[in-house]
Amino acid sequence: MLLTGYLGYAYWAERTQPPGASALHEKAEALEISDTHLHDIQPLWRSILVLLVGIILIVTGGRWLVEGAVDLARLVGMSEAVIGLTVIAIGTSLPELVTSVVAAYKGASAVALGNVLGSNIFNLLLIGGVTAVIAPGTIPGEISNFGLPVLIAASVLLLIFAATGRKITRWEGAILLIVYLVMLVYNIAAV
After folding, report:
1. Does position 21 have pLDDT exceeding 70, yes or no?
2. The overall pTM is greater than 0.70
3. What is the DSSP string of 145-188?
4. What is the dihedral of CA 137, 140, 141, 147, to 10 degrees?
5. DSSP labels for 38-88?
6. Is 35 helix (H, G, I), strand (E, B) or coil?
7. d(CA 106, CA 89)
8. What is residue 127's three-state secondary structure?
């Protein structure tokens, strides 16, 4: 329900922007793609093949990531919640990190920040919702007592940074990175 509302609002906000302010054009500029290339469409069979191969690789990779992380948690004596907050979170966020760094380096800060925020919104609403519908369960203490408060604090910190001058500076980025490293060290030390 919340995801549908968010998607509806995002669509409406994009449609009411002035011409030329499209995120697609900003992303294309960040990736140095001309308008003529945006309209080049590959054959349908190739698009379907790439999509199917991608889905198979994601499902297989996801299974391997979870199995490996659970085995690692058992070997080093860490809880699965801590492994989820660290190893799996890092592994699943690497594509977003690369995309955001490339976009920021090319001056497309809206793409960089939108990628991070959009991914988190989808993870919380879609992935969290689907997971709870398929396999409801309790929230482990490590997450409810530490992970969620850190998430809320980091979100508030990001809102404060974004509200001051509507940009995130290097030192503000460094603070966010330090907060993550402190959380990481705390989780590992708590084992």
Report:
1. no
2. no
3. IIIHHHHHHHHHHHHHHHHTTTS--HHHHHHHHHHHHHHHHHHH
4. -120
5. HT----HHHHHHHHHHHHHHHHHHHHHHHHHHHHHHHHHT--HHHHIIIII
6. helix
7. 26
8. helix
